[in-house]
């Protein structure tokens, strides 16, 4: 008989003290979350993440000393924090900041005015490798910044050539915003099998998570921006 799952370890990075305290209180009240630290600037967040190895960093974008985008880039590129996922929580909607955050390695984003339950669910979602980007949001991102996201045709072909037909199907459904359970129902296979396909395609494409898989599916033309 196995014991209860280990709690999701969370680091909060927010420069406004009241907001930061609110996050700590909300997240700390959840039985499956453990707030392991809090930081008021990006540099402190990177140092704390390297020391504490959280599962998820809840990251603001506009921060002193080191902004959230550069902090995210450093966390994503560090061997010490390579498995840490970053959830960007921002006052900005789909704009240049969010585009840059995703390019830096963020695993998703929510708006600061999201209800507490949505923020908590977002942490759980990111911790389990799921995407937070709804299809409409993704289309807006890719439509607005598509020229900078889209690789040369040969690179696009190379990126997808290694996938099996089933893996391409799974990637397409991920890009349409389906969860693992929904993909399993669509393809009439088990959820565990879907998880295996997702793991394999991420490894083949050298992607961190489902958010990057969604962006790749759009920028390679596997899923049409307007479709």
UniProtKB/TrEMBL annotation:
Keywords on record: DNA-binding, Phosphoprotein, Transcription, Transcription regulation
Entry-linked SUPFAM superfamilies: C-terminal effector domain of the bipartite response regulators, CheY-like
Residues forming coiled coils: none
InterPro entries the UniProt entry points to: CheY-like_superfamily (IPR011006), NreC/VraR/RcsB-like_REC (IPR058245), Sig_transdc_resp-reg_C-effctor (IPR016032), Sig_transdc_resp-reg_receiver (IPR001789), Tscrpt_reg_LuxR_C (IPR000792), WalR-like (IPR039420)
Response regulatory domain residues: 9-127
Alphabetized GO MF terms: DNA binding
Pfam families linked: GerE (PF00196), Response_reg (PF00072)
4-aspartylphosphate found at: 60
Keyword Ribonucleoprotein: no
UniProt keyword Transcription regulation, yes or no: yes
Biological-process GO terms, alphabetical: phosphorelay signal transduction system; regulation of DNA-templated transcription
Ranges of residues in domain HTH luxR-type: 156-221
PROSITE patterns, sorted: HTH_LUXR_1, HTH_LUXR_2, RESPONSE_REGULATORY
Highest taxon of source: Bacteria
Protein name, UniProt field: DNA-binding response regulator
Species annotation: Actinocatenispora comari
